[in-house]
Amino acid sequence: MAPSKILVTGASGYIGGSVLSQLVGSKYERIAQCEISGLVRGEGKAKVLEQNGIKPQLHDSLDNTEELKEIARNYDIIVGCALGYHEPSAKAFVEGLGLRKRETGEETYFIHTSGTSNLGDQPVTGAYREDRVFSDMDDDIYAYEKKRNERQPYAQRTTELSTIETGISYAMKTYIIMSPTIYGLGSGLFNRLTIQSPTMIRTAIKEKQALVISDGKGVWNHVHIEDLAALYEIFVAKIVAGDDKDLIAGERGIYFSETGNHTWRDIAEGLGYALRVSGVTETEQARSLSVEEAAVMWASGDQQMAEVSFASKYVSQ
What we know:
Layout: E1 5-8, H1 14-24, H2 29-32, E2 35-40, H3 43-51, E3 55-58, H4 65-72, E4 77-80, H5 87-104, E5 109-115, H6 141-151, H7 155-169, E6 173-179, E7 181-183, H8 196-207, E8 211-213, E9 219-224, H9 225-240, E10 254-256, E11 260-263, H10 264-277, E12 287-289, H11 291-298, H12 303-310
Parallel strand pairs: 1-2, 1-4, 2-3, 4-5, 5-6, 6-10, 7-9, 8-12
Antiparallel strand pairs: 9-11
Helix pairs in contact: 1-9, 4-5, 5-7, 8-10, 11-12
């Protein structure tokens, strides 16, 4: 029997909301025939989904893993767009899907949202250096992340690895969509803004000058939210149509989503120009920050997070 019940987690977020919107309005006939739900907290958000013709799935907290496991047992496909660094919830969703497969004998699927900061280096502090261009076709990304995480644990990477390994233990299919900087206005019903660029914009306005860590020469990839949501839709379309044989799952099921690249200085200089022409500041020049300063401004004091998310080099193909 073809999968027919789909749950999108993080439905009130930027990625999850956009993916949910994409699926609900999908042009693919088989997706349109599915029952699609959005995972949210609170009756207020549930009501908004209902008013827009979307079935809400209420939950208490991502920390309530027993509840999440039971929720997951009611679905064939879960598109995980909640916190990518929250290992307990991701594992609970996979375990619930695994139990459903054992009970029904039917395949279940988990599409997990991760990020390319998992692969980013740390060029400013020198804590980790990487010069390679990654390929999701030719490189064993799972093995790379496994080895790197043993040397240098990172919550988002740990969550991704746990997702894959839990799926393997239940003999079910997991897919990882690993995205770089995401830009553009989302199409969800709640939060429609991404994280990285708005964070830099808000602090630049407050400081009245564009900011960048060190020289900002680190190169990163990027993807527009519309292109990313369409990628998730393709995955789901293939699964529900029974056309997923070419979708590699498990350890080799890690997929990049980039469509272009930029440097951190590119962003800072563009922001500096926008600030000047808007009359916020008289200079377009970006001010250089230390990793420690950036951590306080952009990453709640987490220096590793600040460096890999706003200063590192990561390039894929």
